[in-house]
Amino acid sequence: xxxxxxxxxxxxxxxxxxxxxxxxxxxxxxxxxxxxxxxxxxxxxxxxxxxxxxxxxxxxxxxxxxxxxxxxxxxxxxxxxxxxxxxxxxxxxxxxxxxxxxxxxxxxxxxxxxxxxxxxxxxxxxxxxxxxxxxxxxxxxxxxxxxxxxxxxxxxxxxxxxxxxxxxxxxxxxxxxxxxxxxxxxxxxxxxxxxxxxxxxxxxxxxxxxxxxxxxxxxxxxxxxxxxxxxxxxxxxxxxxxxxxxxxxxxxxxxxxxxxxxxxxxxxxxxxxxxxxxxxxxxxxxxxxxxxxxxxxxxxxxxxxxxxxxxxxxxxxxxxxxxx
Length: 324
Hints:
CATH class of the domain at 35-149 and 180-214 and 250-287 and 296-320: Alpha Beta
Mean pLDDT: 91
Distance between the termini: 19 Å
Largest sheet: 5 strands, parallel
Strand order of the largest sheet: 2-1-3-4-5
Low-confidence stretches: 1-32
Shape: globular
Helix content: 40-55%
């Protein structure tokens, strides 16, 4: 992070110098602010968009159902570096990799019956996210893959199967484990196709493939069975399985795909969030409900998005730094 702070300090100094240079003209003739130097497009699913209330309020009116929130990491970065990066944020809750690449997506907003009903549902379809990438785009951030894996459906099935178990056994693993390798293979295939499409659309852009944070701790004895603010009815054994065989491999698939593309870099959020899981006191990811009893369904809160912003900023600055 030392290199990141140095570059951020340099950018801050540049901004201050620019502001000082423009001040007389602005006072004299009210000149408009200079346009940002770099074009940045943010793509992804709810872990990018924000989606839950613990990640801020939805700022777009009228709502399009994608649930981009004002404390999600693209918006945090935009507030910090908006004078250098012009942000186009088309991330969308529930997006799959195919929705980023070529599908028109029907957003769901917060319509998750029986947990929640959205009064504005249904929403019109939004274009494939890749359409926001142009030939002159400089940086693309993309955080996606969990919905292609079907993590939300897996989570809900584990909640269902764990009910009445007393927290014992691995009912979810027993029911779903055989299908996970094929799901991970599809993630890898779709991710490779997506990166190729993004490179085609933005041939000069640096692509930052943003991974997923730690959701389940290494020590699952921290997780209390039937705690609705954690994983509710999912057993400890199934949590171990979800971490080891589902979520950690998901990050590995994304990292492997990014490594095959010269224009792509994997952004690791997992290691930095290791002690901030759903079951940790200083959580960066909420449980089934957040601390205010609002639906969260295991999504990052504002602190999780701030951590993501810190790591993504570092890679964005690396992407634009002069090469030796």
